[in-house]
Amino acid sequence: MGAGPELDFRSCLFLSCWLGEGTAGLRSSWVLLEEKRNGLGKTERGGLSEEKDTRWKMLSSGVCTSTVQLPGKVVVVTGANTGIGKETAKELARRGARVYLACRDVQKAELVAREIQMMTGNQQVLVRKLDLADTKSIRAFAKRFLEEEKHLHILINNAGVMMCPYSKTADGFEMHIGVNHLGHFLLTHLLLEKLKESAPSRVVNVSSLAHHLGRIHFHNLQGEKFYQSGLAYCHSKLANILFTQELARRLKVNSHAEPES
Fold first, then answer.
1. How many angstroms separate the CA atoms of 2 and 22, rounded?
2. How much of the chain, in percent, has pLDDT values that exceed 90?
3. Which of 28, 42, 56, 250 is the most buried (most CB within 10 A)?
4. In sequence order, what are the beta bridge partners of 205?
């Protein structure tokens, strides 16, 4: 296997956190940010409570200080037309990478691509259709990408759904597990050989601290026996973590395997 340890798989734990306040506590990190700005969550002594101060430090510590430039690197970011995905794509474009915005809403993504091009001066910001709730769309995206590009250096599996009413993907999977995990699982599988060929390369799976509340209920993967949207999200984020760890383990094992004679 050519990539060996140079193919790096990581899971980023950001975006959502569990604030320990029951099911209503599943809130995005920006809520804690607003509490900090508005002086909420303070003790009588005027400071943040010890518990929330710890959470704040944990959520605010992930600042990228690297100044590395990425000219010649090819990047795919799923769900890059809003939120974390958009900001990630913008920063990668600013560093000179060729960035693909892989999004379900192509019209919105085109607007974001033009915005990023204007802000960064990098015209290599491209939009491609990708609906992670439909395996046909995933396969079509991968097929077109592999026909267009000789390399793939960074795959950022960022897109996802959160706490949506019960529904299923085009292939009959519960929406959270289908989009957040299975969709990215298939996408990574389809692009894996190209990543290996392009080493050093990297896959980033965006997960959440909510994975601590996740459980994989194999007897109820599609949520047909019981369903709670917040917990369904947690389960899918745990699946992201398990996928990342197992994929990294298998690649490491294969990279150290003796070549066949």
1. 47
2. 51
3. 56
4. 11, 157
What's residue 182's pLDDT?
Answer: 95
Say how far apart CA 237 and CA 181 lie, in whole Å: 8
User: Tell me, what's the pLDDT at 37?
Assistant: 43
What is the structure's pLDDT at 96?
Answer: 97
Q: Which positions are annotated as active-site residues? A: 233
Overall average pLDDT of the 151-157 stretch: 96
Q: Report residue 223's pLDDT band, with 50, 70 and 90 as the boundaries.
A: confident
* Closest C-alpha to 106, from 84, 80, 124, 87: 80
Phi, psi of 77 (to 5 degrees): -125, 120
Q: Is the pLDDT of residue 228 over 90?
A: no
Cα–Cα dist 85/82, whole Å: 6
Residues 6+ apart with CB under 8 A from 123: 117
